[in-house]
Design brief:
The structure is a single chain. The chain is an alpha+beta fold and 704 residues long. The protein folds into three domains: 227 residues, no CATH class; 149 residues, no CATH class; 164 residues, no CATH class. Strands 2-14-13-4-3-12-11-10-6-5-9 form an eleven-stranded mixed sheet, sandwiched between helices. Strands 21, 22, 26, 29, 30 and 34 form a six-stranded mixed sheet that branches. A five-stranded antiparallel sheet has the order 28-27-31-32-33. Strand 13 and strand 14 form a beta hairpin. Helix 1 packs parallel to helix 11, helix 3 crosses helix 4 and helix 7 runs antiparallel to helix 9. The chain is globular. The two termini are 53 Å apart. 43% of the residues are buried. It holds the Pfam family DUF2126. This is Transglutaminase family protein.
Length: 704
């Protein structure tokens, strides 16, 4: 990024922060950038949350963060989400940093890789004895065994209240060890706690050795007890000169903001970074770039190369989250009407739904708009916004949750997969559901952290504008034009410019050109055809993949999407060229429309074979034959072929390994077709539908 542009961006950010501060608005922001490996071919880098490699990458990336960003922080493997069908809770490798007090300066003692350690079971036994002695609980140590009777580790029932460490005896002993549940997680997660007598302490420290690593499992503790225990653990580990240590279990509760917590989480197909809440954009920008540098050091990246050379985000999303430091200062709770303003503004600007998101958009995506759901959804949301705006008296978190939880969902009713997600605002049904944050899910990773950070500033600036002047227009009924227009790059860029003009009108000088890298990344040029007096530009557009019917898959049912279609935007440089010429694609005359002085048309076509899929009678329509035809002679004067797939072979030899290789594959798919020049093709008049003014659906133009 050029230094002059960077300076302008920082000045815009300063104006946003100055407005928020002068109006006593505390708006925190966070995000979830996601990273993958260069060759993401295994399940854990596509659909599975966990696998053999991902934890090692998380540990190595954490080592980079401890070295460069958070010296003295504690690296800890905690366990969180546990989804149906997954054998274990998903891990989250956390960095816990205290700005004034190093929690764990001895980073070299931690195992921050996926290599084999050098410890034995004797080490585990010696460590738990030393810890129990320090805590005054030596007589409470218990052995734990697997279901088959093999030794698993050691258990120390422990509790701390009023600054005193204590425990009670469990009904086990040397002759009757604790038989833990089967599985591959630490002993601390597999204890038969339900078998303990009523009133018995159900909190236990465990120590074991797995793959040569000493794993210390810390039970739930409040911050004061947690800090004291970590100090005790540090001293014992130092006295014993231990290495290859893994600290796991539960992070501290009730920290009152004393700790900065950054997590690297196992998520389907990606390694997800849970950024700590930032008070300003500058702070967010700094943390995001630090994470990107740490990821690059361990060979993780923000983009994914497709087989045909196309480059997309990681596929795991890169959601943005905004809220407040606590419920008393949360700007959405201080003034709940701001939520209605936010919802209205987002619905008016489809660019906020499509321009920044992933490859898959529309009703079947993971961040659908309200007006892509049931027909009554938009009307009911209007009623909800009016109700919130007219409410008298206290409007708290539980009431806001009732307002929107049944309206902001995906097509299956999933509240977590909504474009604007309140699943973590005040959702009592979720363990982390009361964080007071609004999650913006229609965002993806881009080619670099600079671009991602500018996008985050864009959203923060919009929120500041809405806080300054509430948006009260009624929700807009786009109807069929929503996809017809706003799946095309020209209309999305027009909408981005309108948003920036609105921001400037309200005193925030955000330049749309700062978002040009997003446009080039999300809507790349796939080919260009030079014609006498002008040119035809072909760009990637957006496509909605329809949901198919439910199908049985084992004991559950699933719904897949039909991903066999693609959409492009054709742009003709000058309208007067159509007076004597016409453009044919696969023999069909392209019906251009004039938009802001440009002639554009969206082109939807069947790009690949899929099953299940809609319209089995439609053959694959790639390659596209693009012909510039002289109207008078009826002959082709310029032509090209655009291949969705490899024009040289049915398969590719694996994914591209470099940016250069990916670009070469993209270039190879656009071929100047000199063999078509001089032909006199039969012209098929386009068959149009009322739903599509700007888009030609080639699937309906079959020859009879």
């Amino acid at each position: 990024m050029k230094s002059e542009m960077r300076k302008e961006i920082e000045e815009c950010a300063e104006s946003v922060e100055a407005y928020l501060e002068s109006n006593d608005i505390v708006l925190t922001m966070g995000g979830e950038p996601t990273f993958i490996v260069a060759q993401p071919d295994s399940l854990e880098w596509n659909v599975a949350a966990m696998g053999p490699e991902k934890l090692g990458y998380a540990r190595r990336m954490t080592a980079q963060l401890l070295s460069k960003v958070y010296p003295g922080a504690l690296a800890m493997q905690v366990f969180g989400k546990w989804y149906p069908g997954e054998p274990l809770p998903r891990w989250n490798f956390m960095t816990l940093h205290h700005p004034q007090e190093p929690l764990w300066p001895e980073t070299e003692r931690l195992l921050l890789d996926d290599v084999q350690g050098e410890n034995s079971r004797k080490t585990a036994k010696a460590l738990i004895r030393a810890l129990a002695k320090k805590l005054g609980l030596k007589k409470f140590i218990l052995p734990a065994v697997e279901i088959d009777g093999s030794k698993a580790g050691w258990v120390l029932p422990v509790d701390c209240s009023g600054g005193q460490w204590g425990a009670v005896e469990w009904p086990y002993g040397k002759d009757q060890p604790i038989e833990i549940f089967g599985g591959d997680s630490p002993v601390g997660l597999r204890l038969p706690l339900d078998n303990l007598p009523v009133g018995c302490c159900r909190s236990a420290l465990t120590v074991e050795v797995r793959e040569g690593a000493v794993e210390v499992f810390i039970p739930p503790m409040e911050w004061g007890s947690f800090r004291e225990f970590v100090c005790i653990l540090r001293s014992v580990v130092s006295e014993m000169d231990l290495h290859d240590l893994v600290i796991c279990g539960y992070g501290p509760s009730d920290t009152d903001g004393a700790l900065t917590s950054l997590g690297l989480a196992a998520d389907p197909g990606v390694l997800e970074v849970n950024l700590p809440p930032s008070a300003t954009w500058t702070e967010y920008d700094n943390v995001l770039k630090q994470c990107a540098k740490a990821a690059a050091k361990v060979k993780l990246q923000l983009t994914k190369f497709q087989l045909n050379g196309a480059v997309y985000g990681t596929g795991g999303g890169s959601h943005l989250a905004f809220g407040g430091p606590d419920s008393e200062r949360n700007p959405f709770l201080v003034e709940p009407k701001r939520i209605a303003s936010l919802l209205r503004y987002w619905e008016h600007h489809p660019a906020l739904s499509y321009f920044f998101t992933g490859q898959h958009v529309g009703p079947g995506s993971q961040a659908p708009r309200v007006d892509e759901g049931p027909k009554h959804g938009l009307y009911e949301l209007e009623v909800a916004c009016e109700g919130l705006e007219n409410m008298q008296g206290l409007v708290d978190g539980p009431l806001i949750d009732q307002f929107f939880k049944n309206l902001l969902t995906d097509s299956s009713g999933n509240t977590h997969r909504a474009e604007l997600c309140f699943d973590k605002f005040h959702n009592l049904a979720a363990p982390n559901g009361c964080l007071g944050i609004v999650e913006f899910r229609a965002f993806e990773t881009y080619q670099d952290a600079d671009t991602m950070s500018v996008v985050a500033l864009f959203v923060r600036t919009i929120l500041a504008r809405l806080f300054k002047a509430p948006f009260k227009r009624r929700l807009k009924r786009f109807g069929p034009q929503l996809h017809d227009r706003y799946f095309l790059p020209a209309f999305l860029w027009e909408d981005v410019q309108m948003i920036c003009a609105d921001l400037q009108k309200h005193g925030f000088d955000f330049d749309p050109e700062w978002l040009r890298p997003v446009f080039e990344f999300r809507c790349p040029r796939v080919g260009s055809l030079e014609v006498p007096g002008g040119s035809i530009d072909v760009r990637q557009a957006f496509e909605s993949w329809p949901l198919m019917a439910e199908e049985a898959q084992g004991s559950s049912t699933v719904r897949v999407v039909d991903n066999s279609s693609d959409r492009l935007q054709l742009t003709l440089s000058q309208s007067k060229l159509l007076e004597e010429n016409m453009l044919l694609v696969n023999g069909v005359e392209v019906p251009f429309s004039e938009v802001d002085g440009e002639m554009i048309c969206g082109l939807r076509y069947k790009s690949a074979s899929a099953y299940p899929a809609l319209h089995p009678h439609v053959p694959i329509q790639s390659p596209l034959w693009i012909e510039w035809v002289d109207r008078k002679s009826g002959k082709t004067t310029q032509a090209a072929r655009y291949h969705f797939w490899n024009p040289k072979s049915t398969v590719y030899d694996g994914r591209p390994r470099t940016v250069k290789q990916a670009a070469k594959r993209r270039e190879e798919r656009w071929i100047v077709a000199e063999d078509l020049i001089g032909n006199q093709p039969e012209v098929i008049k386009a068959k149009l539908a009322p739903e599509f003014k700007y888009t030609l659906d080639l699937r309906r133009q079959l020859r009879v």
